[in-house]
Design goal:
heterodimer, A: 285 residues, alpha+beta, 8-stranded antiparallel beta sheet, 16 strands, B: alpha+beta, Elongation Factor Tu (Ef-tu), domain 3, 18% helix
Chain lengths: 285, 588
């Protein structure tokens, strides 16, 4: 686990190292990214990030209410979320939730509908409504994984939902450790609420999930959005922490996929093809 | 560090660690186990990992018959650990080969013993009588098993009969690198204590102690406390010592890979009409007037996992082959129970089963096959059985009952004495609705009443005589039931098969073109050409030889497909159906 990260695709990308809201002026906040211990300190509107061993400054910036760091040379910008800039939306950070499992497992769980009736019983699913209908998965020109036409019956799909309904989802894997979902807003048909899960790879077997929610303001306030997100994530956490092994196996024969897992099958293959190994158990050559 | 010896039996749990419907998390030499007792008493020791996404099964639910994974609700059967249901795909029967890894389990001296690759028997304990022992609380220690065992050699304790004394003489009677037997004596009192040190991991262990004599009430508590105090002290010392040494690396378990075909998507594995299993008739009984029940037990090993709705082929002593549904409820995996009705016009099948086959006889049977899968995502399920058609529906009803899902089982029979498997029926309580002595007209009226008021989320399963199924299907269609919600299984195909056509069959994947002449079936012709194709009833009723049609117009002559499937023309039963077009392209 102590092995340093050698995946350029991760080293040269931006990752969240702190939610700005948890920082106290002038007091260093301990964080860890890709196995490297960091300290984040806020100075007024600014914040700096240094590496604990050696004290070298680490490249950092702020966006969406988070402090971001890049350990290598940034090959691209922080993920752009157009909906975060729409005035009629709340943009809410859902808390920073530490999970003792590889962040890749957390991403895969976020992509999964089949567990709703069993893990989020009474909220995102309920027996006997367990069927996962066929959906489409594609890799876009932007090299993202896009799953469309996902439908699932949900008793309480969102904090404002009244009664059960079939909910439409779109899932998007944006980067190896970043995944988003878009679901139909219960009050404004045709518009979508979004949740982007930025997963901070603490090390290969630990992560911190930072859900970032862009919800249409009508009929809902920020505490309710945050409450709902934390309720849901608290249900996922014990399941994730009981996955064995903790790293995500990329060998197609390590676990048993079914049709409902089409998007995670694609995700694992996509990780293999992009040579992501950090947090994964690579497939035997 | 030397490779651990995986051939030795070790205790991994105490029997008292397995209370009613609990799942116990055990570990041996780095490998975790989910240990659970089914309601029939069987102790299961399984890899602690769901095959789907690796979630620990020790956090799953033991419903007494099956273990249900917390993550996606996959259900695994008692004994076999075969997956019986995947809720995300309620219309499909899971591939029978989705089977978790199991390990041997032996319950002896109040302990559950296991090993990855055991050699020989569980050790016999000289001086301890099975059933009379007192099992101490397992004491986990953060120290290597050998070090703990070494330390136990100098363990000092009082015999049960002289707990308040101080001067017991303790003699070492036997010892190995993971066990120690000590005898304590004082003032005529005498207690033998045997300690096994379970190597949990390289640097962790559990002390499992057994005393040769049980005690009652407060005396028992006093004995337990005595050892608890002394063993806790021993633990503290062992852990202090271990903390001063470099921590050994954990033993990394190696997980078996799933089979290549499962790594893709679960598909039924092909096999011909084979009778791979040998079973003994453990019990033959009158299930009802004219219906014989047979309980079939494996000659050796375990029977394969079955799902509700599954049937087996029974190969009879007279050479006949017949299909019978398994009536068992979930988790009843020690034997298969089937019901055989004596047909008045029997061509030798049911007559042979009734008159020739006796208890103790050995029969050849096929592995169970499920072409009549049960969805479990309905808000309400109706089962409509006519006569011996009860058998698959009984298995289904017991499965829904176990999961507390809403259903009604409507059983049409001539009279009460012809209702089969009364004990199983009784357990269904008010969900069982008998309809006795109705003539065809009254049956039709009753079916109309039952099927009235279709709502989304309902499913109906029909099994019974042909005319009754025809009536029920047409009433259901008339009352607005979609084909996809009406599931049926015929006993036999009473259609007159017209095999006069001749046509060409192209096998797309095998790149082969074959001629099917009049009088021959597609199934026969493709098998003759070396293509494996499973089959069972070979008369167009069971669905085993189903195949996908890529091109051409099938000439359906079976009773398995529903009307929508027939119209779609994308599936064909190769044992009886033929082609209307000169050429048929199959996905084979």
């Amino acid at each position: 686990m102590a092995a340093p990260c050698s995946d350029r695709i991760l080293l040269d990308d931006w990752h969240i190292v702190a939610d700005r809201a948890v920082l106290t002026e002038g007091r260093p906040f301990a964080s860890r990214l890709l196995g490297v211990d960091l300290e984040v300190t806020r100075h007024g509107d600014d914040a700096d990030v240094v590496c604990i061993t050696g004290g070298a400054p680490v490249r950092s910036q702020q966006l969406y209410g988070y402090i971001w760091a890049c350990l290598g040379t940034p090959a691209r910008d922080i993920v752009h979320l157009p909906e975060a800039f729409e005035d009629d939306r709340h943009t809410v950070t859902g808390g920073s939730i530490a999970v003792k499992v590889s962040g890749l497992r957390a991403v895969e769980n976020f992509l999964d509908m089949g567990h709703f009736p069993f893990v989020h019983t009474g909220w995102l699913g309920d027996e006997p409504h367990t069927e996962v209908q066929p959906y489409n998965v594609e890799i876009t020109e932007a090299d993202e994984i896009l799953a469309t036409d996902c439908k699932f019956f949900q008793p309480v799909a969102s904090p404002t939902a009244k009664g059960g309904m079939m909910v439409d989802y779109i899932y998007k894997v944006i980067r190896p450790y970043t995944v988003a979902l878009y679901k139909s807003n219960p009050l404004q048909p045709g518009r979508l609420d979004s949740i982007t899960l930025f997963v901070q790879p603490v090390d290969e077997e630990n992560c911190i999930a930072h859900p970032f929610l862009c919800y249409i303001k009508e009929g809902i306030d920020e505490p309710t959005i945050r409450w709902f997100m934390q309720l849901i994530f608290a249900q996922d956490k014990p399941i994730l922490e009981n996955q064995v092994p903790k790293r995500l196996p990329l060998d197609p024969r390590a676990e048993t996929p079914i049709r409902a897992d089409a998007v995670s099958v694609t995700y694992r293959r996509w990780l293999r093809e992009r040579a992501v190994t950090y947090g994964a158990i690579p497939a035997a050559a | 560090m030397p490779e651990p010896d995986r051939s030795r039996w070790h205790p991994i749990a105490a029997s008292h660690d397995l209370p009613f419907r609990h799942v116990y998390h055990a570990q041996l030499l780095g490998r975790e186990f989910a240990v659970w007792r089914a309601d029939d008493g069987y102790v299961n020791v399984w890899e602690n990992r769901c095959l789907h996404r690796g979630v620990r099964l020790s956090i799953g639910m033991n419903d007494g018959r099956e273990l249900k994974c917390q993550y996606h609700g996959w259900r695994y059967a008692n004994r076999t650990a075969g997956c019986t249901y995947i809720p995300a795909h309620p219309a499909d029967a899971p591939a029978r080969t989705i089977t978790n890894r199991t390990f041997p389990a032996v319950e002896r001296y109040g302990l559950v013993w296991s090993a990855e690759e055991p050699v020989g028997e569980v050790p016999a304990l000289a001086g301890v009588t099975e059933g009379r022992q007192l099992v101490l609380r397992g004491i986990p220690v953060n120290a290597a098993a050998e070090d703990v065992a070494e330390r136990l050699r100098s363990y000092r304790f009082q015999p049960n009969g002289a707990l308040d004394g101080k001067d017991a003489e303790v003699a070492l009677e036997a010892a190995s690198d993971t066990s120690v037997a000590l005898r304590s004596r004082e003032a005529g009192a005498d207690t033998l204590a045997v300690f096994f040190v379970q190597p949990v991991d390289a640097g962790r262990s559990v002390i499992r102690g057994v005393l040769d004599d049980d005690a009652e009430g407060p005396q028992r508590i006093a004995v337990m406390r005595h050892h608890n105090r002394l063993l806790s002290k021993l633990r503290d010392e062992a852990e202090r010592e271990a903390a001063g040494k470099p921590a050994p690396a954990s033993i990394e378990p190696v997980y078996e890979r799933v089979s290549a075909e499962l790594a893709e998507m679960p598909e039924v594995t092909p096999h011909g009409r084979k009778a791979a299993l040998r079973v003994e008739v453990a019990r033959k009984f009158a299930a009802a007037d004219g219906i014989a029940g047979f309980e079939l037990r494996p000659i050796k090993g375990l029977l394969p996992t079955f799902q509700p709705g599954a049937h087996i082929d029974v190969h009879m002593p007279n050479g006949e082959i017949r299909q019978y549904s398994i009536t068992n409820g979930p988790g009843e995996s020690a034997s298969y129970v089937i019901g055989v009705k004596l047909e008045p016009d029997s061509k030798g099948g049911s007559k042979c089963m009734h008159e020739t086959v006796r208890e103790g006889d050995v029969l050849a049977i096929s592995e169970p096959r499920n072409n009549f899968p049960l969805r479990r995502d309905a808000l309400k399920t109706l089962f409509i059985a006519g006569g011996i058609g009860i058998t698959p529906l009984l298995a289904m009803a017991q499965a829904l009952q176990n999961q507390r899902l809403a259903f009604e089982l409507h059983y049409f029979a001539q009279n009460e004495s012809q209702m089969a498997f009364r004990d199983r029926l009784a357990a269904l309580g008010s969900s069982l609705r008998p309809h006795l002595g109705l003539d065809p007209a009254a049956t039709g009226a009753e079916l109309r009443r039952l099927l009235h008021g279709y709502e989304a989320g309902r499913q109906v399963y029909l099994c019974g005589p042909g005319p009754m199924l025809e009536a029920a299907r047409s009433i259901a269609a008339e009352l607005g039931w979609p084909d996809s919600s009406v599931h049926f299984e015929y006993f036999k195909n009473t259609n007159t098969i017209d095999d006069s056509s001749s046509f060409e069959v192209a096998l797309a994947r095998s790149v082969m073109t074959l001629q099917v002449p009049a009088g021959r079936t597609i199934l026969e012709v493709i098998r003759e050409n070396g293509i494996e194709m499973p089959s069972s009833c070979e008369q167009g009723a069971c669905g085993t030889c189903l195949c996908t049609v890529i091109e051409g117009e099938p000439d359906h002559q079976d009773v398995y497909l529903n009307d929508a499937e027939r119209r779609a023309g994308t599936k064909i039963l190769t044992c009886v159906s033929r082609s209307k077009s000169p050429r048929l392209v199959l996905d084979l």
